[in-house]
Amino acid sequence: MWDHMLTQKKVIYGAATDDSHDYRDFAPDKHNPGRGWVVVRSESGNQDSLIENMRNGNFYSSSGVSLDDLESSDHHIEFSISQIGAFLYSTKLIGENGRVLKEISGNKIKYEFEGNEGYVRAEVMDSDGAFAWTQPIFLS
């Protein structure tokens, strides 16, 4: 659904949240808090700065994967994945209509835009099933 809207040129940012219902028993099969969140890139931790950076899409969403050094330009997207334990990482770079443009294994991700992708976003999964999602970068 997200890719359908992005393909229609609607700027919709992806935000991970948790749908908590179980607050007393913590287990993998329970709907406990803390299973989805956003990480905002901001020079300040004050409320106005955080809200402005979220409004501008300067954040990524996660259910357990941490990204470092996320950088994008008119030519590429590049970031590192924080190594946690012995997890392995797989990243899909996704464009218009949800088309997988490239799959990369490992912690260092760089994708050079070809120009015909419409937009590019990354979906990272670790070997334990946790994810991170970058915001789309629209190409002109």
Brief overview:
The protein is mainly β and 140 residues long. The chain is 11% helix and 36% strand. It is built from 2 helices and 10 strands, in the order αβαβββββββββ.
Describe this structure in words.
The strands form two sheets. Strands 1, 2, 5, 6, 8, 9 and 10 form a seven-stranded antiparallel sheet that branches. The chain has a three-stranded antiparallel sheet with strand order 3-4-7, with no helix packed on it. The relative contact order is 0.20. It is built from two helices and ten strands, in the order αβαβββββββββ. The mean pLDDT is 92. The chain starts with a helix and ends with a strand. The protein has one domain. A hairpin with a 5-residue loop joins strand 5 (89-94) and strand 6 (100-105). By secondary structure, it is mainly beta. 11% of the residues lie in helices and 36% in strands. The protein has helices at 2-7, 47-55; strands at residues 37-40, 59-62, 67-72, 76-81, 89-94, 100-105, 108-112, 119-126, 131-133, 137-138.
